[in-house]
Amino acid sequence: MKKLLKVAITGGIGSGKSTFADFLSAKGYPVIKADILAKKLYVTNEQLKRKIIAEFGNEVYPNGIFDRVALYQKAFINDEKIKLLNEIVHPVVIDEIKKIISRYEEEEIVFVEAALIFEAKMENLFDYVVVITAEEYVRILRTAEREKIPDEEIKQRMKYQISDEAKKEKADFTFYNNGTIAELEQKANLLLQLILTQRKN
Question: Does the 5-196 domain belong in CATH 3.40.367.20?
């Protein structure tokens, strides 16, 4: 039996990495979305909840319900707060990703979509790391349209992610997403061809 290939898909906010991952999912490949997983863990993992409340206050869980916006407002204010949040959340999410990956041992490839692959120092979990990138103004426009937040807030979030240039240097594959959805789908197909061809050789 061939070894399960583990492939990370990463990129900055507004890069289109989620759409790229959706194309792969539509082809029948398992895709683990770290952001969705983290949202779930904020709600279901009691130890994580306690640590978040201890560091960022009860306002993050008004009436016991997780408020992501409140957490962002308290965390995205300086490097120290972001580092603290990441130190609390990343280990929990990584452990859960490892558990889920272990369920796919019979599959050919499993993809993990996560914004903070390099920031969380989890690149060594994967056989390949794929970076999806786009011009900054394109990323800002997409995020503003999707999340209905001001450009300045988007730029603030971007500040706390490793630059695309640094990510590209560490990646095995880089795909540019300045064009259409159809072009991005072609690039997802190309990635599959490249990975599967390398596997045969």
Answer: no
Q: Left if phi > 0, otherwise alpha if psi is -120 to 50, otherwise beta: which for 16?
A: left
Q: Are 187 and 25 in contact (CB under 8 A)?
A: no
Q: In this structure, what token pair is assigned to residue 140?
A: 């800002």
Q: Output DSSP code: residue 72.
A: H
Q: Where are the alpha helices (DSSP H) in the chain?
A: 17-26, 34-44, 46-56, 68-75, 79-102, 136-147, 151-159, 164-170, 181-200
- pTM to 2 decimals? 0.90
Contact between residue 6 and residue 110 where contact means Cβ atoms under 8 Å apart: yes
Decide: 130 and 191 in contact? Cβ < 8 Å.
yes
Chain mean position to CA 142: 16
User: Are 5 and 127 in contact, with CB atoms under 8 Å apart?
Assistant: yes
| Per-residue pLDDT reduced to its tens digit, 130-180 | 999 999 888 888 888 887 888 787 787 777 788 888 999 999 999 999 999
